Amino acid sequence: MLIYAVCGAGIGTSVLLKANAERALSMLGIEAEVKAVSLEDARGTNQMAQVILATPELVEKLGGIPSEVISINNIFDLAELGEKLQATLS
Questions:
Q1: In this structure, are residues 37 and 5 in contact, taking their beta carbons and an 8 Å threshold?
Q2: Lower CB density within 10 Å: C or N end of the chain?
Q3: pTM of the model
């Protein structure tokens, strides 16, 4: 499974979101590849992720793509990440 952690440029928020998503997935016992990418990369890549994690202000900009987009309110909240990932991946 491929998961994208998205932010505007792919070098700030997405890197933090990626690290915390990997921790949450590990605690859930779920194996997945998580990549930090820019909004542009998430929309235009040839290898589309099954799941995209993004902050609420970017969710609308990700509309129309076949991935499931999960809005993450607090990228540092492992409980929120875990709950939303588990609900999506179960």
A1: yes
A2: C
A3: 0.91
Residue 45 CB-density burial (10 A; 0-12 exposed, 13-18 middle, 19+ buried): middle
The distance of Cα 11 from the centroid of its chain, to the nearest Å, equals 14
In degrees rounded to 5, what are phi and psi of residue 36? -85, 120
Q: In terms of DSSP bridges, do strands 68-71 and 51-54 run parallel, antiparallel, or are they unpaired?
A: parallel
**Mean pLDDT, each 10-residue run in order, the chain (90 residues):** 89 93 96 94 82 94 90 96 92
CB 35 within 8 A of CB 57: no
Residue 89 per-residue DSSP state: H
